Amino acid sequence: MALQFLNAWGCEVTAFTSSERKKIEALELGAHYALNSRELSEIEAATGQFDLVLSAVNVKLDWNAHLGTLRPKGRLHFVGTTLEPLDVGVFPLIMGQRSISGSPVGSPGNVARMLNFAGQHDIKPVIEKYSFDQVNEAIERLRNGQAHYRIVLSH
Fold first, then answer.
1. What φ, ψ does residue 41 adopt, rounded to 5°?
2. What number is the average pLDDT over the span 122-148?
3. Integer Cα distance of 92 and 19 in angstroms
4. DSSP assignment of the chain, as one string?
5. CATH 3.40.50.720 region(s) of the chain?
6. Using CA atoms, how far apart are residues 144 and 24, in angstroms rounded to an integer?
7. How far is Cα 72 from Cα 65, in angstroms, rounded to an integer?
8. Alpha-carbon distance 89 to 115, whole Å?
9. Residues 73-127: pLDDT tens digits?
10. Could you give the CA distance from residue 90 to residue 108 in angstroms, rounded to a whole number?
């Protein structure tokens, strides 16, 4: 959803993806460009290009490489959590006056503004919808890592 929001705000959006399928999907969801996060050469080619890198992933990545994509005074911001500690060099932070931050879900007022904005710009989550009598199938897809973004149960 971040791709859709950023695009609607008028940002030039580059998505970091881990597969060709996800790259195509990111472009369809509003990214202008997409980089393969598993190809160090693609990340290195983006050195110094971004003001903000927004991370929503829950896996360990080469955060030093991602920090390198930031312009001076750029920010690496986390809204997803990883279980491993961040392994980052301080020197690139200091020399580029870059920063690392994170935030939880917004306040009720911010969530209301976000939902209003989403309605105005037709921003919708990508979901898989299941009826309650398909709950076992839905849970199995979730357990096997086959869920596509979110699973929603409905009647």
1. -65, -35
2. 91
3. 28
4. -HHHHHHHTT---EEEESSHHHHHHHHHTT-SEEEETT-HHHHHHTTT-EEEEEE---S---HHHHHHTEEEEEEEEESS--SSPP---HHHHHHHT-EEEE--S--HHHHHHHHHHHHHTT----EEEEEGGGHHHHHHHHHTT---SEEEEE-
5. 2-124
6. 23
7. 15
8. 37
9. 999 999 888 888 989 999 989 999 999 999 887 789 988 999 999 999 999 998 9
10. 35
Question: 46: number of CA atoms within 13 Å, CB side?
Answer: 24
Both tokens of 81, joined, read 């959590």
pTM of the model: 0.82
Rounded distance between C-alpha atoms, residue 103 and residue 77, angstroms: 8
CATH number for 2-124: choose from 3.40.50.300, 3.90.1150.10, 3.40.50.720, 3.30.450.20: 3.40.50.720
Q: 89 has which bridge partners?
A: none
Rounded CA gap, 103 and 14, in Å?
21
Give first-to-last CA distance, the chain, whole Å.
24
